[in-house]
Amino acid sequence: SSLQINKQARRRASDRESASVDRVRDQEKGAREVMAGKIKTVVVVVQENRSFDHMLGWMKSLNPDIDGVTGAETNRVVVADPRSKAVPFRDGSEFVDPDPGHSIQAIYEQVYGTPFVDAQATPITPPAVPAPPMTGFAQQAEKEKPGMAETVMSGFRPDAVPVYRELALEFAVCDRWFASNPASTQPNRLFVHSATSHGLVSNNTKALVAGLPQTTIFDSLHDAGHSFGVYYQYPPSVLFYRNLRQLKYVGNFYPFDLEFRRHCREGRLPNYVVVEQRYFDLKILPGNDDHPSHDVCEGQRFVKEVYEALRSGPQWEETLLVVTYDEHGGFYDHVPTPVGVPSPDGIVSDAPFFFNFDRLGVRVPAFFVSPWIEPGTVVHRPSGPYPTSEFEHSSIPATVKKIFNLGCFLTKRDAWAGTFDVVLTRDTPRTDCPGLSCMHACQSVSVSHIDHARTC
């Protein structure tokens, strides 16, 4: 009968769907097994407050595949006035002081070109604006300090950031990695290891001192029997996660200057490594996190030190280093910030913004470094897991989950974020990765740059 035929057809369709799901699961399992054989240590460095175009936009001159700048980019100092001065994007960045604006309301004006008033008059995610025009950087900067428009509309020449130049040529740069939300430092740093800021859109001192309650990738690794370590030069920001203050984790924290090189040399790095730099100037040691007014050459030397320690150690062939930035720091970027992204946990930020965490922040630099990566690789938009997925800070816990075959996702955001395991394309590790002599050549350029910057 026709009823029996329909039942048989539905059964066959169901069988085909089940077979397809099984094939996908088998492929994912195979991919995890391959990755597990390649990567046993993931190292994360998160620098401070620089946009992609500001740090790497001019790298397009080295590799046209990089979505960088051409010099045709401009912002007007008064967005609504077509007669106002147009500030072009230039290549003259050096020492930056004072610090450009990067609060949530400043970022709103930078990407939408109009000041934030209140949640009713100017919703923090404007409806019916699928792509922010990125037109308000110069206008907002002039409100911070007259003449600052030229500062934020400027980027570094490749030879001014020589360590990054080397990493871009020899490993992989991601030209579509965004801050997790359009806010300042700590709300974005919280996303790096937990895929949520638990509602924070500012550096809320009271909340940070009390500690944020969310589950972190550190907890997931620990519960699954994997190791992690935090190597710090300054009291680490991961202690803003309340869970990391537990007594059981005391032995997971190491002074960077005493232990990092030694652990690299002895092959004792854990599965997940977080390196935290100096966020503030000390009496005899300058900050090296790249946050203005810190000199980026200190940051170049810091990244160089991390790379060289890893490169010279016995775990190099099973290591993946990720270098990115927490947020853009008020500096121009031409790529529209994505909207329509999933809220991690349904938490809405406090008044006056009432932010639903439904759009990302400005694009920031990101590098992937491993002997399993082909030289000169450029990573663009991810292919999944969803059609709208992007690379952002939640991609770190998402990828760590995948590499180490962990259990549940932390939030809806890391379940949505793209994973960067796709960059590990080689069947065998390279033997021609830059060694110490090449990176020492970079240091000599850095030293001349820092001397010049300090006399400006």
Helices, strands, pairings?
Elements (H helix, E strand, L loop, with lengths): L1 H37 L2 E7 L4 H5 L17 E3 L9 E3 L15 H9 L24 H8 L3 H5 L9 H9 L1 E3 L2 E2 L6 H10 L10 H6 L6 H7 L4 E5 L20 E3 H11 L5 E5 L19 H16 L7 E7 L40 E4 L7 E3 L11 E2 L2 H9 L8 H5 L19 H19 L2
Parallel strand pairs: 1-8, 1-9, 4-11, 5-12, 6-7, 6-8
Antiparallel strand pairs: 2-3, 4-10, 9-10
Helix pairs in contact: 3-4, 11-14
Q: How would the global form be characterised? A: globular
And the CATH topology? Alkaline Phosphatase, subunit A
- The level of helicity is 25-40%
Mean pLDDT: 91
As a percent range, the share of strand residues is 5-15%
Tell me the major beta sheet: 8 strands, mixed
- Runs with pLDDT <50, length 5+? 19-27, 440-456
* CATH architecture level-2 label: 3-Layer(aba) Sandwich
Q: How many E strands? A: 12
User: Which CATH class is shown?
Assistant: Alpha Beta
Tell me the Rg in angstroms. 23 Å
How many independent structural domains?
Answer: 1
* CATH evolutionary superfamily: Alkaline Phosphatase, subunit A
Strand order of the largest sheet: 7-6-8-1-9-10-4-11
Family: Belongs to the bacterial phospholipase C family.
Keywords: Hydrolase
Region (Disordered): 1-30
InterPro entries: Alkaline_phosphatase_core_sf (IPR017850), Phosphoesterase (IPR007312)
Would you kindly provide a written description of the structure presented here, covering whatever features stand out?
With 456 residues, this protein is an alpha/beta fold. It is built from 14 helices and twelve strands. It has an eight-stranded mixed sheet with strand order 7-6-8-1-9-10-4-11, sandwiched between helices. A two-stranded antiparallel sheet has the order 2-3. Helix 11 packs antiparallel against helix 14 (436-454). The protein is globular and about 60 Å long. The termini are far apart. The model is unreliable at 19-27 and 440-456 (pLDDT under 50). Keywords: Hydrolase. InterPro entries: Alkaline_phosphatase_core_sf, Phosphoesterase. Residues 1-30 are annotated as: Disordered. Pfam families: Phosphoesterase (PF04185).
